[in-house]
UniProtKB/TrEMBL annotation:
<feature type="domain" description="PTHB1 platform">
    <location>
        <begin position="543"/>
        <end position="643"/>
    </location>
</feature>
<feature type="compositionally biased region" description="Basic and acidic residues">
    <location>
        <begin position="913"/>
        <end position="922"/>
    </location>
</feature>
<dbReference type="InterPro" id="IPR028074">
    <property type="entry name" value="PHTB1_GAE_dom"/>
</dbReference>
<protein>
    <recommendedName>
        <fullName>PTHB1 N-terminal domain-containing protein</fullName>
    </recommendedName>
</protein>
<dbReference type="GO" id="GO:0060271">
    <property type="term" value="P:cilium assembly"/>
</dbReference>
<dbReference type="GO" id="GO:0016020">
    <property type="term" value="C:membrane"/>
</dbReference>
<dbReference type="Pfam" id="PF14728">
    <property type="entry name" value="PTHB1_GAE"/>
</dbReference>
<dbReference type="InterPro" id="IPR028073">
    <property type="entry name" value="PHTB1_N_dom"/>
</dbReference>
<dbReference type="InterPro" id="IPR036322">
    <property type="entry name" value="WD40_repeat_dom_sf"/>
</dbReference>
<dbReference type="Pfam" id="PF23337">
    <property type="entry name" value="PTHB1_pf"/>
</dbReference>
<feature type="domain" description="PTHB1 hairpin">
    <location>
        <begin position="681"/>
        <end position="773"/>
    </location>
</feature>
<dbReference type="InterPro" id="IPR055362">
    <property type="entry name" value="PTHB1_pf_dom"/>
</dbReference>
<feature type="domain" description="PTHB1 GAE">
    <location>
        <begin position="456"/>
        <end position="540"/>
    </location>
</feature>
<dbReference type="InterPro" id="IPR026511">
    <property type="entry name" value="PTHB1"/>
</dbReference>
<feature type="domain" description="PTHB1 N-terminal">
    <location>
        <begin position="1"/>
        <end position="381"/>
    </location>
</feature>
<feature type="region of interest" description="Disordered">
    <location>
        <begin position="875"/>
        <end position="954"/>
    </location>
</feature>
<dbReference type="GO" id="GO:0034464">
    <property type="term" value="C:BBSome"/>
</dbReference>
Length: 954
């Protein structure tokens, strides 16, 4: 933004207040209506309004040539009085034409009276060209003079017009001819004696561009669709095509971009210049095709105006250029050197220069909505005082209080009934149905069959019923990163009313591991004819057969979770529960009390998840050596226990349709939480792989730079015909090519590993989300809401920042504020970490330190989740101590299940104490057992010890 501002001298609003103006709508010229007049401002709009203004600026006009202080102060006050003054006498003419006005020009367009100094107006309509004469009628009595617009003649056009150009074509004197450019690039010439003819330029014209006439050389200049500035001689263009002597332009110059505007000026007796405003450059070319200068613009231009100060035959004539940027800045150039910059009050679409009464060389600007202003380059700077720095310490409590107050204001200003009404209307307008069709079939996708030969795919059917007519409708299928889709987006325009369409896509696993969730969500966003946008959402659960297959159950596992179901499933024997819950994996009539599931692809490495049912069928155990594999199985088990999922597939709408009552009656609680160390290890692996990928990308950049260097050197040696030196260059090229190929292969492999790490981390986050959501004694309300919102199972790394950089501010905020903060230890609630800001600083040269973000995120997340686990354990201990021994099942022996999140330490203790007396370490009463479980931070649960019993079917 410039320091100076363009001073306002006169302004008004055109009758049309809509965006109906462009760069061809403003024309500043002296119409010679009366003797000694100044320039008039002619404005034409796309709505048909034609207005002519002659600004007077009031009676007390400022003296712009005053130099002393007293006169300057007096002129300043007079300028304030004269500013923004609009008088009714400033309007010469306002008329409503029946057709839109595309362009306005003035000149000698008639031959009736050569001694008449008055000029005529040429108005271009889409299909007509009209010539008007301004006639002044003397007023009677006290009434003043008034001006009428008289139509002299008009020409009908056979094609839509684009622009208008005029000049003394052919070198005639005292007359001006007209040339209309059509949208297809053809030219229509009109002479004053009624002769009109149409010509087409040699090259193809797909995009019309500004066309101007150069009087000195009697040529036309325009920009072709190939971004080439071309110059055609009028005598060649005026001849018929049969006798055309020259098919090509007399000269052409590639400017490399589209021309926003083009103007022509004569700067000396022997030269005229063509000034072209491009999208990124400002060019000046002589009429012989030589480039005078090219100015690279570091801003986006909107419009410009060029003029010559002084007469062109004088040696002191200067070419001036005024360019307006999209930020509203006016930049004034003398040739290619900037000499002034000022800020406009608004961003105009057209700019001109006029000599008005009391202000020679005024700047005229026209806004997109008809705001017409006349101003001048003032030297009064825009006073801006830098505010004082707020050096007060950052207080988390005060910011949290302000945030809560803002949330209350937002909630008070938002009417929730409007959202419900809008959602109901969206459901009526578009009905979206999503379902899984048929059973899974063998996968036929080429990118999957080579990697996962035993994988299957299922068909997702999406049915859309549209009631009103829609402008646009888009369907998007969103799945987990480990699930592929044959086509994930559909886009339609101008959807007919009362139409129904069905779309089928295929979903299949793409990587040899389990996804974090098997939910496929279909988003339907549509825009009505009124411009209102709505979004609908439907979800469906994919068949579990796509990802899992049965395997041999295992006795022990590193990670174990306990599920308690109240009321228990209605079965007589413990062995038939898993067969009813997973009939696609358990054979019919099976009475097994354990079921093992492994991934369909990559299951040969021994990774599996085992589900064990207790004798009372009130409890289930999910155990595995891999945390990432437990999330999908645990989610499926909970859904089937609560009745929200049928065998094979289910939708989230089933719960609202008929199974909500059943799921509300069945409560599934999870005793214990997995070890936080598993999540920390996954975060560390994700960070290490990101660093490895970054290092390989840097190596590839270095190798490709060396390759380009060797190639340039090879070309130099080849031109020098130095055959002996080519052998060494060829050897370097081959070695470098091998290195580049090797690094590319390593990047591909490492990115695949990074993708698997992202999926595994997302699955672990989903597992923690399920455990906290179904914890036995987890506090509810905001506590659980903040916690589950933190554990979002979507891990994505963008080019700008990764998952650690995105999650670190969230974890730091929750660690210091809200219901999850540590209210006892105030030392952790530091406003910022100086070491982090110094080590993780990002500059243009130094990249972000990934390790600093990852280490800080791991430490903050470990303390946060550890504090949450302690609260859950405290609530569990209090509940256990109030109920005695806490044993409510007689189907299990007196052997407690080790704590879920500290099982490694417990197994080591059991191995060390195996040779000692177990009776001495066993508690004698219920209270001693409660104390032992409180120390272990786990709920009291009794399980069958399958190491000592033979009822596990192995």
């Amino acid at each position: 933004m410039s320091l100076f501002k363009v001073r306002n001298w006169w302004k008004t609003q055109c009758p049309t207040i809509e965006p109906a103006y462009d760069s061809f709508s403003l024309h500043c010229a002296r119409l010679c209506i009366e003797e000694g007049e100044k320039d008039s401002l002619v404005v034409g709009s796309h709505s048909g309004q034609l207005c002519i203004y002659r600004p007077s600026g009031g009676t007390n006009l400022p003296d712009l040539d005053a130099e002393d202080d007293e006169q300057g102060s007096a002129n300043g006050s007079a300028n304030e009085l004269a500013e923004n003054v609009f008088q009714h006498a400033d309007v010469i003419l306002e008329v409503q034409l029946p057709l839109p006005v595309l362009g306005v020009s003035s000149g000698k367009f008639t031959t009736t009276n050569k001694t008449d100094p008055r000029l005529q107006l040429a108005v271009l309509h889409p299909m007509k060209l009209c010539i008007f004469q301004l006639v002044t009628v003397d007023g009677l009595a006290d009434h003043g003079d008034h001006t009428r617009l008289v139509t002299l003649y008009d020409h009908a056009l056979s094609k839509p017009a684009f622009s208008l150009s005029h000049g003394p074509f052919g070198g005639v004197k005292g007359r001006d001819f007209l040339c209309v450019q059509h949208l297809d690039g053809s030219l229509r010439f009109f002479e004053q004696d009624g002769i009109s003819y149409e010509r087409t330029l040699a090259t193809d014209r797909y995009i019309p561009a500004p066309l101007h006439y150069v009087p000195r050389v009697d040529c036309f200049v325009t920009v072709a669709p190939s971004w080439v500035l071309e110059c055609y001689r009028y005598q060649d263009v005026a001849e018929a095509l049969e006798t055309l002597r020259r098919h090509d332009p007399i000269w052409a110059l590639c400017i490399g971009e589209y021309a926003l505007d083009l103007q022509v000026h004569q700067i000396s007796n022997t030269e005229s210049v063509i000034v072209i405003l491009g999208e990124n450059n400002l060019l000046c070319v002589s009429d012989t095709g030589k480039v005078r200068f090219i100015k690279k613009l570091d801003y986006s231009p909107v419009c410009f105006h060029s003029f010559v100060t002084g007469w062109y035959w004088e040696p002191g004539a200067r070419l001036m250029l005024a360019v307006v940027s999209e930020s509203g800045s006016l930049l004034l150039y003398e040739s290619d050197q900037i000499i002034w910059s000022a800020q406009l009050g608004h961003v105009p679409v057209a700019i001109g220069r006029a000599n008005v009464a009391g202000l020679p060389g005024a700047l005229v600007t026209l806004g997109p909505t008809g705001a017409l202003a006349v101003g001048y380059l003032g030297s009064e700077p825009q006073l801006f005082r830098v505010p004082a720095l707020n050096l007060a310490p950052f207080e988390i409590a005060r910011c949290q209080k302000e945030l809560l107050e803002l949330e209350r204001e937002i909630r008070a200003g938002v009417d929730p009934s409007d959202a419900s009404i809008a959602n109901a209307a969206a459901e009526r307008d578009v009905q979206l149905e999503v379902a899984i069709q048929g059973e899974p079939v063998p996968c036929t996708e080429q990118q999957v069959t080579g990697l996962l030969s035993a994988s299957e795919m299922c068909q997702l059917s999406v049915t859309v019923r549209v009631e009103p007519k829609l402008e646009m409708l888009q369907l998007t299928v969103a799945t987990d990163q480990a699930i592929g889709c044959s086509k994930d987006a559909f886009l339609f325009r101008d959807v007919a009313a009362h139409s129904t369409e069905r779309f089928d896509v295929w979903l299949y696993p793409t990587v040899p591991t389990l996804p974090a969730s098997r939910t496929a969500t279909v988003y339907c966003s549509y825009t009505s004819k009124q411009g209102i946008t709505r979004v609908l959402e439907r979800s469906v659960l994919l068949p579990v057969r796509l990802f899992l297959k049965p395997a041999q159950p295992s006795k022990e596992a590193q990670h174990k979770l306990t599920l308690t179901v109240v009321p228990p499933p209605a079965q007589h024997t413990a062995g038939s529960v898993l067969g009813r819950l997973f009939p696609e994996f358990a054979p019919e009539g099976s009475s097994a009390s354990a079921l093992a599931l492994q991934p369909v692809a990559g299951g040969g490495d021994g990774r599996k998840v085992t589900i064990v049912a207790a004798k009372s069928t009130n409890r289930f155990r999910v155990q595995s050596d891999e945390l990432g594999l437990m999330a999908l199985v645990l989610e499926c088990l909970i859904g089937r226990l609560q009745g929200r999922e049928s065998v094979g597939h289910a939708t989230e709408q089933d719960e609202a349709a008929g199974r909500k009552d059943h799921s509300s009656r069945v409560q599934v609680t999870i005793g214990g939480v997995p070890s936080v160390s598993g999540l920390i290890r996954s975060l560390q692996l994700h960070c290490d792989l990101r660093k490895a990928v970054k290092q390989l990308e840097n190596d590839l950049e270095i190798a490709t730079g060396q390759m380009r260097l060797f190639e340039r050197r090879f070309v130099v040696k080849l031109q020098e015909r130095s055959l002996r030196a080519l052998d060494g260059i060829l050897m370097l090229l081959k070695r470098n090519h091998t290195a580049v190929a090797k690094v590319c292969l390593q990047i591909k492999t490492m990115r695949q590993k990074l993708k698997l790490a992202q999926i595994d981390l997302a699955a672990i986050l989903r597992l923690f989300h399920l455990c906290y959501s179904h914890a036995a004694n987890a506090p509810g309300g905001k506590y659980l809401e903040h916690l589950t919102a933190l554990l979002v199972h979507s891990v994505l790394d963008s080019t700008e920042q990764g998952y650690e950089e995105m999650m670190l501010p969230v974890v730091r905020f929750l660690h210091q504020t809200g219901p999850l903060k540590n209210s006892t230890d105030q030392s952790e609630a530091t406003p910022f970490d100086e070491e982090f800001f110094y080590t993780a600083k990002q500059t243009d040269r130094d990249p972000v330190d990934l390790s600093a973000h990852s280490q800080l995120l791991q430490s903050q997340l470990q303390r946060l989740l550890g504090r949450v686990n302690d609260r859950i354990t405290t609530a569990t201990t209090a509940r256990t101590s109030g109920s005695g021994s806490g044993r409510n099942s007689v189907d299990f022996e007196d052997q407690p299940l080790p704590e879920a999140h500290n099982e490694e330490a417990e197994e080591e203790e059991e191995e060390n104490e195996k040779g000692q007396n177990e009776e001495a370490n066993r508690p004698t009463d219920g209270s001693a057992g409660v104390e032992e479980f409180a120390q272990l931070s786990a709920t009291a649960s009794e399980w069958v010890n399958y190491e000592k019993m033979s009822d596990l079917p192995l």
